[in-house]
Amino acid sequence: MSFAKISTRKIYEQIADQLKQFIVEGGWRSGDKLPSTKELSEQFQVGRSTMREALSALKAMGLIEIRQGEGCFVRWVEATDVQMPTFDSLLLSRDAIFELMEARIALEAANAGIAASRRTDEDLAAFRQLLKSMQDHLGDEAYGEAADIEFHRLLARATHNSIMMRLLDTISSQMEAAIRDARRIQLYGSKKVSVRLWEEHEAIFQAVAERDSGRAEASMRAHLTHVEQGLRSYLDGK
């Protein structure tokens, strides 16, 4: 006789639930910076990867924002608006992953075009600093992943459209949860691939800097199409 395996809540879900409750009850207020991942990991006695998953879940709920190099900060939310997502929904099917990827390509191409027409000198300075740091850390898997995410967030911010930023956060959080391992192996585990990614990000930046909306959109589509091809190759080989 065989029995189906009983599903239990993952540790990061339980941690996210506790942190959510702490925020809702006013333990941390809007704008407050959370303790570091290291400090939270020690407090909950879990690994940093588990804690990062919990923080990603809070980001997906719109409770916090994660700023590259600065940490995690509480966003302004109403307690009645906060709901714990159904984590099973993050375990997407292969078809759903690529539908999500298709939506991301459309959104980010639009972001690139809008950013090219609205970017400020401050936006360009942030891009230049990040791209220089990315170039200095080529082949560093952990940094490469974090910097890649930050580049796309900077681009959304350069649209100066809060809805675009929120849409990107929602889609990116779902993508991160669904394809985290595949993305790390396929995109950040090879220095050769890291160099190509940096060049693609640089091309997007140059188009934005020159206020060329059409080229910015085309460069973003080319970049994300390459990413999608890599993920398809990885998933098809599993």
Quick rundown:
This protein is mainly alpha-helical and about 240 residues long. It has helices at about 10-25, 35-45, 50-60, 95-120, 120-135, 140-155, 160-190, 190-210, 215-235; strands at about 65, 70-75.
Could you describe the 3D structure shown?
With 238 residues, the chain is mostly helical. The protein has two domains: 11-81, Arc Repressor Mutant, subunit A; 92-236, Up-down Bundle (Four Helix Bundle (Hemerythrin (Met), subunit A)), CATH 1.20.120. Helix content is 68%, strand content 3%. Strand 1 and strand 2 (71-74) form a beta hairpin. The model is unreliable at 1-7 and 79-91 (pLDDT under 50).
Biggest sheet strand order reads 1-2
- What is the H/E string? HHHEEHHHHHH
- β-strand percent reads under 5%
**N→C terminal distance:** 29 Å
Can you count the helices? 9
Number of strands: 2
Rg for CA atoms: 18 Å
Mean of the pLDDT scores? Answer: 80
Notable characteristics:
Arc Repressor Mutant, subunit A, Four Helix Bundle (Hemerythrin (Met), subunit A), 238 residues, 2 strands
Describe the secondary-structure layout.
Blueprint: H1 11-24, H2 37-44, H3 48-60, E1 64-67, E2 71-74, H4 94-118, H5 121-136, H6 141-157, H7 162-188, H8 191-209, H9 213-236
Antiparallel strand pairs: 1-2
Helix pairs in contact: 1-3, 2-3, 3-7, 4-6, 4-7, 4-8, 4-9, 5-6, 5-8, 6-7, 7-9, 8-9
